[in-house]
């Protein structure tokens, strides 16, 4: 129940644009450490369902009682303690979700959270004894529209990285003019 409450709160914070997303990998590890057997895929499905639930309730301006009544009558498999947590979270924080007309019509896209990079050199491989080939590994941390945080990694040659860097400089100069 504590972890479910924590996940509901994180989703509300994400919908209020206070945090970029929900780190399901971290939450899954905390839950598994406490002795509960759950995999990250199931936890992500729960997060997506709750995100849809809360955003739909906000869009339709549902009161706490309307939300709980709808959930209680429509979803027979939802445990009573889960309904209590949803009631509490929605009652305390649900009204803060601002759903403007523009936000309703806007296409949902992911959000950039962080970027890390490192320089490496490939010394050799099973087909070539002496490579001495420099490369840059970039890891982007992104939150998808549902708020799930994930890492995307890719490698670039030095010329590709220079082009990538040039494009970032162009974006920065355009943003300065706005």
Structure described in brief:
By secondary structure, the protein is α+β, with helices and mostly antiparallel strands.
Q: What class would the helix/strand composition place it in?
A: alpha+beta
Label the overall shape: elongated
Number of helices: 7
Kindly estimate the percentage of residues that lie in beta strands according to DSSP.
15-25%
Count of the separate structural domains: 2
Radius of gyration: 22 Å
The biggest beta sheet is recorded as: 3 strands, antiparallel
Low-pLDDT sequence parts: 100-107
Mean pLDDT across residues: 80
| Elements, N to C (H/E) | HHHHHHEEEH
Strand order in space, largest sheet = 1-2-3
Number of strands: 3
Helical content class: 40-55%
Beginning-to-end CA distance, first to last residue: 46 Å
Protein name: COMM domain-containing protein 6
GO molecular function, one term: NF-kappaB binding
Organism: Cisticola juncidis
Family: Belongs to the COMM domain-containing protein 6 family.
Description:
With 178 residues, the chain is an alpha+beta fold. The protein has two domains: 1-106, no CATH class; 109-176, Nuclear Transport Factor 2, Chain: A, CATH 3.10.450. The chain is built from seven helices and three strands, in the order H-H-H-H-H-H-E-E-E-H. It has helices at residues 2-15, 24-33, 40-59, 64-74, 80-93, 101-105, 158-177; strands at 111-122, 133-143, 149-156. A three-stranded antiparallel β-sheet has the order 1-2-3. A hairpin with a 5-residue loop joins strand 2 (133-143) and strand 3 (149-156). Helix 4 (64-74) packs antiparallel against helix 5 (80-93). The N and C termini lie far apart (46 Å).
